[in-house]
Amino acid sequence: MSAILTVSGVNKSFGGLKALNDVNLQVEEGTIHAIIGPNGAGKSTFLNALIGRLIPDSGTASFMGKSLIGQQPQAINQMGVSRVFQTPEIFGELSLLENVMIPALAHADGAFKANWWTNLRDRKAVREVAERELHDVGLKDKMDVIADNLSRGDKRRLELAMCLSQDPKLLLLDEPTAGMSRADTNEIIEVLKTIHAKGMTKVIIEHDMHVVFSLASRISCMAQGHVIDEGNPDEIRNSAKVREAYLGDEADEH
């Protein structure tokens, strides 16, 4: 396998706080790569640097050989990188079908057009994409439901469908099970396993070690803005550095 995402020497400071400190990371194509670490470790800042919400002070980040640094978020999205946020970002007043058709239409057109809403329901191919992705996340039977009426777990699945409708090559997930019950968490794990069977590369930031060890084939641990250790799940379970920084005794429970 080859690296689909390569990050080298990335630094970012906010005043006197060094949020990212010489971050180096490689994500192999077709894998699920988890990033763990305590609160304030720089994980979300790192993802924001990858999707154009923040510009690093120094360092490089390339996706499929193309630089991500300095690109606008929409340009990065069009390159094939999508992100699922900690709090689901959906159109609450619209139906599930409409929610998924909007990003699918943007992907098909290359950008939002002035008449996107007028023609939304008339785009047969886009509707077919939306229905397929809703089916894949287990929500097709609710496609006419207004999104605000969904449970938290279903809102997360809806946002996944919205991202998948853009046919991303790399999916970034920032704590996809935050605030969920164990039942909803397990449902999301199964959805992500189903998606992974299609070969899509994923980077997951997650505090729940049950989620991490259920999904990831490679894990990086961050602390104080730096990657302190990396390995497969067994190596991370047994890493003294990781135990000290984050896992503690929890690693013994899995």
Q: How would you name the oligomeric state of the polypeptide chains in this document?
A: single chain
Strand content: 15-25%
Determine and state the CATH class of the largest domain.
Answer: Alpha Beta
Tell me the series of helices and strands, N- to C-terminal: EEEHEEHEHHHEHEHEEHH
How far is it from the N-terminal to the C-terminal residue, by CA?
28 Å
- Can you tell me the number of structural domains? 2
Number of strands: 10
Helicity level, as a percent range? 25-40%
Rounded Rg: 18 Å
How many helical elements?
9
Largest sheet: 6 strands, mixed
CATH topology of the largest domain: Rossmann fold
Overall SS class: alpha/beta
CATH H level, superfamily name of the largest domain:
P-loop containing nucleotide triphosphate hydrolases
Strand order in space, largest sheet: 6-7-8-3-9-10
Mean pLDDT over the residues: 87
What is the CATH architecture assignment of the largest domain? 3-Layer(aba) Sandwich
What shape does the CA trace take? Answer: globular
**Low-confidence residue ranges:** 249-254
